Amino acid sequence: MTRAPDLNLVPFVSVDHMMKLVLTIGTERFLTELSAYIEEDFQRWESFDKTPRVAAHSLDGVIELMPTSDGTLYGFKYVNGHPKNIQDGRQTVTAFGVLADVATGYPVLMTEMTILTALRTAAMSALAAKYLAPKGADTMAIIGNGAQSEFQALAFKAILGVTKLRLYDIDPVATRKCAFNLRNAGFEITACQSKQEAVEGAQIVTTVTADKQYATILTDNMIGSGIHINAVGGDCPGKTELHKDILLRSDIFVEYPPQTRIEGEIQQLAADHPVIELWEVITGRTQGRRDGQQITLFDSVGFAIEDFSALRYVRDRLKATGLYQNLDLLADPDEPRDLYGMLLRHEATIQGAA
Amino acid sequence: MTRAPDLNLVPFVSVDHMMKLVLTIGTERFLTELSAYIEEDFQRWESFDKTPRVAAHSLDGVIELMPTSDGTLYGFKYVNGHPKNIQDGRQTVTAFGVLADVATGYPVLMTEMTILTALRTAAMSALAAKYLAPKGADTMAIIGNGAQSEFQALAFKAILGVTKLRLYDIDPVATRKCAFNLRNAGFEITACQSKQEAVEGAQIVTTVTADKQYATILTDNMIGSGIHINAVGGDCPGKTELHKDILLRSDIFVEYPPQTRIEGEIQQLAADHPVIELWEVITGRTQGRRDGQQITLFDSVGFAIEDFSALRYVRDRLKATGLYQNLDLLADPDEPRDLYGMLLRHEATIQGAA
């Protein structure tokens, strides 16, 4: 019998290690590389087990498990969404995830995913825009300047070459925070007084607000022809950002229709309203942007395969950086059938040491 | 704004800490107390969100997520089942789990659950037998002497007063291992040469074999009247241990019918074959054992609520024992909307230190 050493240990990436990993690689390079991993997985979309997330709803929020597998690796993310958390200094969304080997069922990576989810959401948005935004777009409006806004800006700069930002938030403090954080990132930044002002001259409009309600962040008159809308904030039942009339004028691109119809902007539309699956655009089966007049809408809700890509990416960067610790997560008796014997021998060890 | 300290930290119980926890409390006391936690949760069965496990099947095994919630706490377990793992020194089943606060979605405990699952499975078996086994039963046959066997023996000793064990395994090495591990545990142990010999004089018959196949560990002629069968090993589609004729002579008790009909011994029976839910027995709504002639069968597959009870139990024992470490699992920016700012400030800290 051959035994791999340290079968009990699983690499764990803490929040501290994740921050060091992002800073070591560089945020923009991290976003660019992560986006390439997502693109690769969307190109082999059909090889994945896909299932809508498993959600436990409560009065104050939701806890979800998002599993997927490509037959070789299995990944899942635990993620919560609790808008009221912000009142006592907690994050609205926190997450962690696990990547496992399908052949043995053994986890090969456990990692924080609060920061990683912020990065993958932005990387996904920019990947979609690479196929959908008008050519040469360099100006993006960001409506909602909370935790996700800087990541969106940096991903669109790194992957599409966006250099002009028009920021708006109902809370000017959020806008100042976003502008301050991005002050040395190479953007020309305009802090706007209204949504209307923010969308002026922008070829890309990103909405990323946080309220859990049917909101109308964008109304029909704000969206001219040729715009790409990156709708990130509407991502659960009862939470949308766009007026229905915009949806009716747009070509709508989604990650995974069974999930987006429940969680996305299109929950406002009939269940058979036509949508285009992004993987079909990325594989070249379907056209993305056709012309300069078309309004394209990426109705982003976040799908398990994007987390899977993020887990793969982090795992592939661990060895070179060493930015992880080993967790003693898996019981590893000398003889697999002798779990209780392992306990007894542990007792003997303790008594021997005493 | 009031902020709890150390919002980023989640207590983690490693394999080493779990072993120390079990040894500090004592295996039999741990099983008894854990069984009481399970009993408490079965008594409020109706207050739980229940869902069949979310399974990802592959050629070599299965990876499952088992979530449940009582509205205040949310728990899930990650567990794999890979029979071939034993060939390269890995466990057939490994597991870990998380308990979280429903109000905030924040995890409050992460723990190894390979050892803990072995304990909760045995605690559950003994709890069922407390309601179903014939009065005064002191002799148990254990067919299958692998990793679960000692835990079954100790749970039945602690909770029912079983003191005589009749062990059988197709591999005599497994029987010797089990007998050796239990040599000082206060049992009268008989190592048997056949299944037939093992069941002689036993009021309780526990089957806990591991092959993933339709097996016939018990045939009809081996089971006399009045016996309680604790069928632990048949726990996934295509894996059963009992001849169908035994099922037809037994009153069958199950954890959660929608799951047991897929995974349990009753996958051999019609989908509407009558079964009794154990929680109804534990709450007193339905009778368990009626008389000394009845054959009772606990068709055990393991349900998420039992893992939830186990997570609760471990969490309640942490403070007094200190047997955990804190994991830096949750991003905790000073200002919840300023996740990217946290990264920037981390960079400044690193540069300041350099």
TrEMBL record, chains A, B:
The EC number(s) this enzyme carries: 4.3.1.12
Tree of life domain: Bacteria
GO molecular function, one term: ornithine cyclodeaminase activity
Record keywords, A-Z: Lyase
EC main group: lyase
Any Pfam family: OCD_Mu_crystall
Record PANTHER family: KETIMINE REDUCTASE MU-CRYSTALLIN (PTHR13812)
Listed name of the protein: Ornithine cyclodeaminase
